[in-house]
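Quick check before the chapter quiz. The format below is the same one you will see on the exam, so make sure you can read both the input and the output lines.
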Amino acid sequence: MFLTISTTGTPERPATDLGFLLHKHPDNAQTFSTSHGTAHVLYPEATVERCTAALLLEVDPIALVRRGKGKGRGGAPDSALAQYVNDRPYAASSLLAVALATVFKSALRGACKAMPERAGAPLPLRIEVPALPARGGAELVRKLFGPLGWDTVDAEPVVLDTSFPEWGDSRYVRLVLEGELRLADALNQLYVLLPVLDDAKHYWVAPDEVDKLLRAGDGWLAEHPEQKLITSRYLSRRWGLTRDAMERLELARLAESDGLDAEDLDNAVDAEDEATGEATGEATDGATDGATDGATGGATDGATDGATGTPEKPVPLAEQRREAILDALRAADASRVLDLGCGQGQLVQALLKDVRFTDIVGVDVSVRALTIAGRRLHLERLGERQAGRVKLIQGSLAYTDKRLTGYDAAVLSEVIEHVDLPRLPALEYAVFGSARPRTVLVTTPNVEYNVRWESLPAGHVRHGDHRFEWTREEFRAWAVRVAEQYGYGVGFTPVGPDDPEVGPPTQMAVFTQQTATPKEEQA
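Here is the expected output.
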């Protein structure tokens, strides 16, 4: 099992700098032990003008058989089906990828104290893999490496037997890559794509493989056109792990688009909510307004049950809000509903209990929130009919999404106040201009009511992530403008006790589509 990495140089930047970047001296042949054999690093040529490093992996067939037990822990299909005659010692596979990561660990990280500027700069590289198993053929090899910045991706099929050309080609190719890339990027691409092309791994794929994939795929996998195939094959088609990886990749892509860190974007669940939200069933809607939603808003203060003389159980504002939303959806005769910014899935859960809602989609940018929502809904245990009614998808409301078109209604429950005001027009267009459901329900806190919350300090918003909170007049002005711009009518409904001085704790706008296309497009 063999691959070579070559570069060219000049007297000012000698090719032998490759030895510094790989942390392997060109004058020495080095040997390293691996779990399935021995890896050798040597330099067939090392001059100022050209330098080539070779990685040779000698696989121990006995260790491979002893450790390989089929598709179970530590096994790969090929080594189980043909224990003593197989291609594992000769064809590039996950064995070579693991050796690559072991021998060139620092180089994969792009770390080089001696020459940090060389490690961070592109090099003229030529990488050769003489025998690469390619389940999908040469065309798949080009599809995988082509978008990654290589000038040349040459995948020459290897014939089964040169003496019998009529037998055709084998499933192996001779791979040659040429182009200017950072060495770390090239090594990480090989680490991921060698086992992907082989479509097999010699070891059990555990959950930590997701972290390895995302670490090695940083900077290129999130935008790769074959991302789904790469992710699925790398994780041995384990559906749960593949879904987790795809969600995290989408979050990384959205965060990069917004110029944020993924952790900053994935903030829809507070640590306390994440720990307790599923257990209580009464955490907040949408993006978690935990400071006030558990309160009653004064709806039942001092009320008693006339029959027993005991105080009535107060109705949390979050529950009042959900009931108001459900009533509005029923009045709109909606059956296909989007919950945009679904958070931990409380509204989705309520919708699922009513059979009139036949197609329910929860959307959130937060992977953590969607994970909690999935647990809350017990998606893995739902019957076929129930499971067919509900879907949770990751997405950002700042971007148009074809998956969200064609629905009867959309709900933005306690969502808009979590959006920076300069980005609000993007959300408006994504919902009202692109998705264009027949009915849109928007709820948001009424800042005037905050004086009624004894636990909320004066001048504070209800949740630390709120970018703003509007008065009734401000909310109405926004809603009327959006309705006029996108061809909707709008009405307003109080949620919670309607205080004669400061109004209700939550205000809801009900948008109803009046034209098939936005008025700005008609003009």
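If your answer matched, good. The longest strand covers residues 169-181.
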